[in-house]
Every structure is written in C-alpha cells, then in structure tokens.
Specification:
270 residues, mainly alpha, 13 helices, 0% strand
Length: 270
C-alpha cells in the first residue's frame, strides 16, 4: 500500500484507483456501522472516498495509511447530519420497553425464512449501535469491531489514548449490559428471540420481505442455524463479538467502482 500511495501522490491515477479499491470496503463498513442503513452508508462512503482522493497529497506518513483514512472517515461521520435511524430517538431503554411489550409471543418464523431472520438481526445490531451517542459508537466500532489500538484510536479521533480507552469502555459496558440481559442469542433464557420477533416486525413494517434493506443491496447467504452452532461453546463476551462480526454483512456496493472511475476522469483531481 505504501508504494501505491507514493505513486498516487506523484499523480499516477491507476495507483490511486488501486488504493480506493483497497480501502472502500472498510470505509463503507465504518459508515454502515455509524449511520445504520445501507443507503445512508453508501452516500457517506462516497463522500469520504472523495475526501481521501482529494487530500492524498497531505498524507505525510505520521501514521499507517489506513489509520489516516479512518481519521478522515471519523471526522466526516461525527459531523455529518443525522440520518433516519438516528432520528428515531432510539435508546437502550426504549429498545428494552419494546422487547417487554412483545412478551412471550408464540409466533415463530418458518424454516424457510432464514434470510429474513438475518435481516432482522442486521437491523437489531445496527439499532444497538445507534443507542450509543456518536462519540461512544465510533470508539466502540473502532475498538471492538475494527480492532484498532488505543494509540491508533487516539490518532483517529484526535484525543488522548486514555480518552479513547475511556470512551471504548463506556460504549462496551452499555452494549454488553443490554445484550446480556435481553438478547436470546447471548442467553437462550433472555426475552428477545429472533424467530419469535420476526412475524411481529414484519407486521409492523420494520422488516419488509419484498424490499429487505441488506439483502436488497448486498448479496449474502443466510447464516441460519450455523450461527447458533458456532456460538454454542462461547462465553457471553465472545458471543457478542461474534454477532457484531457477523451482522450486518459487509461488502461495498458495486456502485462505488463507476463512481471512482468518473471521479478519476474528472479534470482537476489527482
């Protein structure tokens, strides 16, 4: 990557295209985790990639290139306008009240509905993240999902390593407290069971079988029963990590490729 960066800074557009192709997946995933919906993430990721392209000459190697990219992305995602899912007023308390109102409904999803169960789980994992404010959400995503170090996180967010660790700890505590108490995938005795929730969520319009938010934009095979099998021998913390690693499925939209080509072909860009 370092060689391609040097070539791109010297004006080589092919090197720049190679760089963008290499980073677009992580940029999109970070935007998706922060904004909660694929269409919003697509828009934000394209905006971030444009900033990376136009600021390529300012990279001086004070950090790893990916860390520098994350810093640009983080600043954009912390300051961009609120998107639809953030405007819903979600909180862990509101989330928990909804689970309690659901009660012990006996309706269950059919064996053929694995794809919709995965859709529900993707929505759920995104909603859990949105229950955190943006500062805590970004620290949690960077630290627990992307695995950045305290030093890297501090550089990305322009704070001290101690402040980054504090934000990460606060976000991690809130997420784990909620999931250990409510999520049936963490503890089968917990009240929120995916297959019981699905029929109700479809009726309420939260899941649209004809236009799923994730399967409609990003192809993925249903996880289905395999997830429960993988999690069977894990502890609570490992199960939470596995869920965030699995949902939502990540893959940059194919629309990125023509967008990058158009941008690189525009006079005035590197």
């Amino acid at each position: 990557m370092e060689t391609e960066v040097i070539r791109a800074q010297a004006g080589n557009r092919q090197a720049l295209a190679t760089i963008v192709e290499g980073i677009q997946g992580k940029v999109y995933e970070l935007a998706l985790r922060m904004l909660g919906h694929p269409s919003d993430a697509e828009d934000a990721a394209q905006e971030i990639l444009i900033k990376v392209i136009t600021r390529m000459g300012s990279f001086r190697g004070e950090s790893a290139f990916y860390t520098w990219v994350y810093r640009i992305a983080a600043n954009h995602l912390l300051t961009t306008r609120q998107r639809k899912i953030e405007q819903m007023g979600l909180s862990f308390e509101v989330f928990e009240e909804g689970i309690e109102r659901q009660g012990t409904a006996r309706e269950t999803a059919s064996p053929e509905q694995h794809l919709l169960v995965d859709e529900l789980r993707s929505n759920c994992m995104q909603a859990i993240l949105v229950c955190l404010n943006r500062d805590l959400r970004l620290a949690f995503v960077l630290g627990d999902i992307f695995g950045v170090t305290g030093v890297e996180g501090a550089f990305i967010l322009d704070i001290t390593p101690a402040a980054f660790r504090q934000r990460l700890s606060r976000g991690r505590t809130r997420v784990r407290r909620f999931m250990k108490k409510n999520c049936g995938l963490i503890d089968p005795q917990n009240p929120c069971q995916c297959t019981r929730q699905l029929p109700s969520d479809v009726k309420k319009g939260w899941i649209d079988p004809k236009h799923p938010a994730y399967a409609g934009r990003i192809f993925f095979a249903p996880v289905g029963k395999g997830l429960e099998d993988r999690m069977a021998n894990l502890n609570d913390l490992q199960r939470i990590a596995t869920l965030f690693d699995t949902y939502p499925p990540r893959r940059p939209p194919e629309a990125f490729a023509p967008m990058v080509k158009r941008l690189l072909a525009t006079p005035g860009h590197p």
